[in-house]
Design goal:
Length: 724
């Protein structure tokens, strides 16, 4: 996430930070060896591209919009993450805009990285590998890429030139076409006739057709005098392809695939780049030998059945055999169409599909049966097996070996953006997670997708709050964006749920964080609109049957319950840099310590388990603060200079205080740390191979197992580590 340094206010803060002895020390030089693994959920994110290597059986790569790239391990039948080494400062590089392989050199792999092209995001980069992604060399670009922006399912935008393995092409969104003649070590602008100053998608794909290269262009308005497909035959001069289709259904060329047997190029089109916003589309075939075009659209969108076309793959073994996908087809659900006669006739593979999601039950989305999928823009055919077909959706990657039976081919690939974590002190599950897009999950096992899928009754899209009553761990509450309610409670530790009997009207449009007091008798629900607008919090003392406004609670703050005293709640008001507390069960709040860092929404207030009034406050660039008097005063913890999130776990043998886990900086780098002595000293417990970009949402230790820690990532799911 974009970071900005904030400065602690002077005199008031100094007066507040007085009563607790300073905790000093530095991180220990020798850290314990940790083993890191990914909690299995089963994909849960948008797979934007899949690429089979054309000359190596069983070798394939996948890219995601925010969660990095993967290599398929055929022997183990699982995906291997390739970009977990990307660190905190480079979080913007976990989005993979495009990837490329060299047909002549199977060990070579190239990735174009950059999640956002916005002014606040960093520039993109190209990674190049000579060993299939085990090790990398990096070249920083002078332009921005947008792997998590509109058009992220287009591509591939990166290509090894078919005439020369040392030459690579990279299509950008707003800076035209780039070219490298030294295998990606350096890049410069290539002469390209399209105007890169537009606000659209720029280059949408690059594809080799024999010795020629074709480039799609997404800024066209679809008129006859605005080309959207270009070609070079000599690697120097680009020209518009004549006779191209026009109109709204052919406005944006999304993807293309070349049939080397028939020397024909198949191009999918839509009226918008997608994955959202498409209402029209088409499929066309270009005969590259003489420039003849033929429309081969399987089904034309119309009426209430609106959609575009997205993925396209040709069968390397069978001339004229092609698969294309619809995209953004919400009414009838997206499908794959397959032809074996060059597009003269098509069959919908969805109509005969048998879906088996037993390995990833969340894909039922709270219903009886799974759907074929939405947001299908990544489609790939195994060049060595005509019946091995995979397609990516907004949530998983499906595969088949017989074109009828489908199951997620997703092992090892985890892309969840995780928001909240709870590790219960008792019960079957050691972990409950609150997530973007897939709501809340109850993890009976860390090595299998939750058997109950997403928490239902109601089902949430994105979770905004998750809390457990400290003295009554069987009681858990959650909040989030849902179509059938925005809050729910559980009486069995998060295994099953029931909606609150009632909810405040504002909950539908602005669900936010929620807290339960120590014994679960009082709920506090804060409300924040998706655009950041805060609203007054509400309180319930009857399990959500009625709610009353808490006028003195700081709007938009996150409520935190004292783990021992049911009458006490806390909240940090970042607008004023003030800690507020309630001693009457959340009826009223009063200011305590003031003069703390203000104005930054990225902070965290936590309470040490089993201790009343023992507060820890992470204030991003201003570091870590602690109060042992319920927030009346705070002392800065001198052992770290930047703190983003922290949590607690089981104490070390012989220690009386819980282990403290921190994502922050004790010296030069941002990393994951553990302290067994109340933050006097720290040991780094991750390593340079395990960094996962931005990890500032949540971290918590396991209250039952010393050393085990759960870490929320923004695109790599939940990572958990244990001493090796």
């Amino acid at each position: 996430m974009p970071s900005r340094r904030t400065v602690l206010a002077g005199t008031a803060a100094a007066a507040a930070l007085t009563s607790v002895p300073l905790l000093s020390g530095r991180a220990l030089a020798v850290a314990p060896a940790y083993r890191w693994r990914t909690v299995v959920m089963g994909g849960t994110g948008f797979v934007t591209g899949v690429l089979f290597h054309p000359s190596v059986r069983g070798l394939a790569y996948a890219r995601t919009d925010i969660g990095g790239a993967y290599r398929w391990d055929e022997r183990r039948e699982r995906w291997v993450p390739l970009t977990d080494h990307i660190g905190w400062d480079d979080w913007n590089l976990l989005g993979v805009e495009a990837m490329a392989v060299d047909p002549q050199h199977p060990e070579r792999l190239y990735l174009a990285l950059g999640t956002y092209a916005q002014p606040w995001a960093g520039n993109g980069a190209v990674l190049r590998s000579e060993d299939r992604g085990n090790t990398w060399q990096r070249t920083d670009l002078a332009v921005k890429l947008g792997a998590n922006e509109d058009g992220r399912g287009c591509g591939e935008r990166l290509l090894v030139d078919p005439r020369d393995s040392d030459t690579l092409w990279l299509g950008t969104r707003h800076d035209g076409l780039l070219k490298s003649t030294d295998r990606g070590a350096s890049w410069g602008a290539a002469e390209f006739p399209a105007d890169p100053s537009g606000t659209g998608q720029g280059v949408t794909f690059l594809v080799a057709a024999g010795r020629a290269v074709y480039a799609g262009w997404g800024d066209s308005d679809g008129t006859a005098d605005s080309p959207n497909l270009y070609r070079t035959s000599d690697g120097t001069t680009w020209e518009p392809v004549p006779g191209r289709p026009t109109g709204a259904a052919a406005r944006v060329p999304v993807r293309a695939a070349y049939d080397r047997h028939t020397r024909e190029l198949y191009v999918t089109y839509a009226d918008a780049p997608g994955p959202n916003g498409q209402a029209d589309g088409s499929v066309h075939r270009l005969r590259t030998t003489d420039g003849g075009w033929t429309e081969v659209t399987p089904v034309k969108p119309g009426g209430t059945d609106t959609f575009g076309y997205g993925g396209v793959a040709v069968d390397a073994r069978r001339p004229g055999s092609v698969v294309v996908s619809t995209n953004n087809r919400w009414a009838a659900v997206d499908t794959l169409y397959r032809t074996t006669d060059g597009g003269r006739s098509w069959t919908s593979l969805k109509d005969t599909a048998v879906l088996d999601v037993s390995e990833t039950p969340y894909l039922k989305w709270g219903e009886d049966e799974p759907k074929f999928g939405w947001w299908i823009q990544a489609v790939a055919l195994d060049p060595y097996d005509s019946r091995h077909l995979v397609y990516g959706t907004g949530a998983t990657l499906y595969g088949t070996r017989d074109l009828r039976h489908w199951a997620p081919q997703i092992r090892g690939l985890e892309e969840t953006s995780v928001r909240q974590l709870i590790s219960p002190p008792a019960g079957k599950a050691h972990l409950i997670s609150g997530n973007g897009d897939i709501g809340v999950m109850y993890h009976e096992s860390l090595t299998a997708s939750p058997a109950r899928g997403m928490a239902a009754n109601p089902v949430f899209g994105t979770a905004t709050g998750l809390a457990q009553a400290a003295a009554r761990p069987s009681y858990v509450v959650r909040a989030g964006w849902g179509d059938h309610g925005n809050g729910a409670y559980s009486e069995d530790g998060g295994r099953t749920w029931a909606p609150f009997p009632a909810q405040p009207a504002i909950a539908k449009d602005a669900p936010g964080p929620i807290a339960a007091n120590a014994d679960g008798s009082v709920l506090l629900w804060s409300f924040v609109h998706w655009d950041g607008t805060p609203y007054a919090a509400r309180r319930s003392a009857d399990n959500g049957a009625t709610w009353s406004e808490v006028a003195t609670f700081p709007k938009g703050a996150t409520p935190v319950a004292d783990p021992v005293d049911p009458s006490v709640f806390y909240a940090f008001d970042t607008a004023t840099g003030t800690l507020h507390a309630s001693t009457d069960g959340g009826l009223t709040f009063a200011a305590r310590a003031g003069g703390l860092s203000s104005g930054d929404r990225e902070f965290q207030l936590a309470v040490a388990p089993g201790r009343s009034g023992d507060l820890w406050l992470s204030l991003k660039w201003n570091g870590l603060y602690r109060s042992i008097d319920g927030g009346a005063t705070f002392t800065k913890v001198s052992s770290c200079w930047a703190s983003y999130t922290l949590g607690f776990g089981r104490a070390a043998k012989g220690a009386s205080y819980p282990a403290v886990y921190l994502v922050g900086s004790t010296e030069a780098i941002t990393a994951v740390y553990r302290s067994d002595d109340e933050a006097r000293t720290w040991v780094r417990i991750n390593d340079d191979r395990h960094q996962w970009g931005w990890t500032g949402a949540a971290v918590t230790g396991d209250p039952r197992i010393h050393g085990r820690v759960y870490l929320a990532t923004n695109g790599r799911g939940v990572q958990y580590g244990e001493p090796a």
